[in-house]
Amino acid sequence: MPDEYHGIPQLISLDGHRVLYVAHALSCSQRGRAIVRLWNVNLDAMFPRSGRQFPKRRRRHYGRIVLVLDEAVAAAPSADVLRSYDGHYPDDETHVAGVVRAEKSNRIAMEKPPQHETTTAADKEEDHISKLPDDILVQILSLCPYRTLMRTVSVSTRWERLLSQLPDLTFCLSLPVDTLSEERVQSMARTLRRRCADHHAIKTLRLVYRKDVAMECRYADDMIALANATKLVLTPHVGMEFLPGEEFLPDADAGAWSLQLPPATVELQVLPFSYAVRPPRIHGADISALRSLTLLGPTVVSEDFSLAATVFPSLEDLHIGECTLAVSMSISSDTMPRLKHLRFTNVSVRTDDTKAAITVLADDLRTLRMSCPWYSKTESLSEPLMFSCHYGATAVFTKYSLFRLRAPKLAVFEWRCCYADEVRIEAVGRLSDVAIEVAAGRTRTPTPIGTEPKYVTIQQRDKLVTDILQGLMPGLQPRTWKDVRRKCMQRDDRWLCFEDTTSAYPATE
């Protein structure tokens, strides 16, 4: 035991068993000042039902041992069972070993089979993992974190060769609570270079890195260009020391940034982990190859929203979710001429007074899905009034000032738990699937207690559904407005729903 631990009770491992190691080595001048170092102490073990079992000889040490054990018992929860006095005292030798049931260790040792028998049994076991084909092993390794992956491929030369065949790679350069380490990042970069040396295509590259650290941003850009992956998933974030307490508020800003797409990338997912990370400006000579784009995470859409100003000639699928609108958002065929599928998920507005509109003018759009259950939730009036602690990142209740739609080829339309002051649907195609769900009720009420709650009335709910259905009528192809109203169902006293998957209405005389 090192000198600095003399006089400190320790828990050590002895033959695989945890032991309370008293190790006083106390001189007469140190008596009564024992310090306890605690780790999983078992109360029942230290004080058996038969009572404390301390030696009767040399009672001058009794108080000191009681002090040590009492402090250990007061702080901790499992070690092995203590045994009676074994004939040693603190003054008899430097370390007073304490207190393990010797019989238990002896019994376990006697039960262990001889070494040669263990080896023989292990030799007879079949190695099922080695029998797996390479493609199965590659899929398994693709799911492993970087540290586990590197430990695994070092097992054998066969597993090491599989590293060059991995289709999916994940590199977490750092987390918000991690200590920065360029050596760790360099190790990941070397692994990626080894993976790319055999010219096997990488299907998916996932990167988690800090946007506020220049070193990690530089390595991330190099790794993106080197991998040239078909699918690119980025999770930029900032450290906990960045604007302490404000890294998750919309007012935080880590600065503008850009992303140069490699030639092979057809799918991009940007998943920011902090409001401080704003949407990137996407550029590159091969941006025309991008087919799918996802922006999902806490970020702010401001006046300089780069995605709306960038031209994506071949983009077909766009998903925007969990972001906050500080201004209005517009999606048009001018920048996305081939857009076919559009989805908005939990897109909130900045404050209750923010007038943010969503405009979709897409000539080739086929599918539009909108839902906002997180920020547009209502409660039944029969439920007790609960005041929520609102931290100011978004409005208490999200309602868009205007929703405008012009999509002459639209076939699928979903509107679930979204609200707007005005709905203006100018053109749709022949609709095959329509789903509308809107609820009346009380909105979330923020603190302080006593704040007047707000409501979505039944009249407001009915007007919203009516405006939407009247705009969709050319695509529904009904004979009369009565046919449309017949499809509306009131699920309960709050929810009004409309569903149509066939658009087949009976002809009326």
From TrEMBL:
Which SUPFAM superfamilies does this UniProt record tie to the protein? F-box domain, RNI-like
Judging by the UniProt lineage, the source's domain of life is Eukaryota
Which first-to-last residue range defines the signal peptide?
none
Sequence ranges assigned to domain F-box in this UniProt record: 126-171
- Matches recorded under Pfam families: F-box
Q: What is this protein called?
A: F-box domain-containing protein
Organism field: Miscanthus lutarioriparius
